[in-house]
Known about the structure:
Keywords: Membrane, Transmembrane, Transmembrane helix. This protein is mainly α.
Amino acid sequence: MxxxxxxxxLTLLRLAPIISSTASLTLAWDQHWMLRIFxxxxxxxxxxxxxxxxxxxxxxxxxxxxxxxxxxxxATSILNLRVNSLLLQQRGSHYWYAxxxxxxxxxxxxxxAVAPRIQAIVEDEEGKGKSVGELRxxxxxxxxxxxxxxxxxxxxCVVAAVKTLGL
Length: 167
């Protein structure tokens, strides 16, 4: 097939986890740096008033992106393990793809730590002063999650692709 001279679907499959894990990692850090603005002491009073409604809209809009990127990382990593597994084992990338998938799943293991924070922020509609403190707690968990699961998945996916494609 002449089109394979210009586009190799298997190469795209090998690279897909890098692309999706890069998007996850970028989104995690964008959220972190953007949301921390609400915790600055000089705007904390305004943040207490506006954060609950703003965060509710922000969370609803961003949840599908987070879940989508994680799903693509998990699915394409697992699919890579199924397509010519022997080659991946020979090149030493099999466990790297598996680790990338596992770390993408690991992102979801933080849900019990962040769900109460999110709920507390969104439900502080009367501006009782809880939302900024809860956001600070959420940001700490988000930073830990970003540095462990999101960064870890990205590193694993990069190493897997480099080893597989021989870059």
